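Field notebook, page 219. I keep forgetting to write these up properly, so this time I am using the form the group agreed on. The chain and the ligand, D-xylitol-5-phosphate, are recorded exactly as supplied. Prediction of the bound pose follows.
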Amino acid sequence: MHSILVAPSVLACDFGRLHDEIHRAEQAGADWLHLDVMDGHFVDNISFGPAFVDAAASAATVPVDTHLMISRPDHYLPRFLKNSHNITIHVESDCDVASVLKSIRSAGRTCGLSLRPGTPFSAVEPYLNAIDLLLVMTVEPGFGGQAFQPAMLEKVSAGAEYRKKHGLGFRIEVDGGIIAATARDCIAAGADTLVAGTSVFRAPDMSAAIQQIRQPSGR
Ligand code: DX5
Ligand code: ZN
């Protein structure tokens, strides 16, 4: 239904050369730019905040996909709205999820909902008719460079089945440990939007890496 999109995660780039890294990713075929915001509470890491998102957005020509791994997305949301095309919040965060999703859409942005590896698919079900994107975390959020968790493919399939059964149109995004081989399994399970940090920014040939994630031909 949806075209396959690849969203390089800036978390894995050289922050000292942010604009060059973003241009490099765009020239290599990035469809979206994925920005991982971490507050040191929701996850055990602090990445960057609104000023950095603004700096990245000022260099980007592709849509900015902001992933909020923060405890209070309701409180900080206004600071990310201006420069994000999509904003994804976590179902486990400490907020009224339905109301934050609504605020994102009211601001003219698309909204995403994510779940950690330990959170069952049933936790996101009540919100699936009110989202533009379901982000299935395929690693524990907080750090790049971790190994893909194959057990998460079940949640990707569950999302695809639910989407079909209820005639919904949300994208299904996967994030964590995505390389060509894991991308292939995710796409087979129903994912259409692939976030990749390490395997894209640290690849010897970034164009080839993005191409292989978008159209994985084998292991
Ligand atoms: C992890 C982040 C990911 C991360 C992915 O908490 O949400 O977006 O950057 O990194 P890789 O692709 O290296 O697993
Ligand atoms: Zn992410």
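OBSERVATIONS:
- Residues 148 and 177 are 4 Å apart (CA to CA).
- The chain is about 35% helix and 20% strand.
FOLLOW-UP: compare against the apo run.
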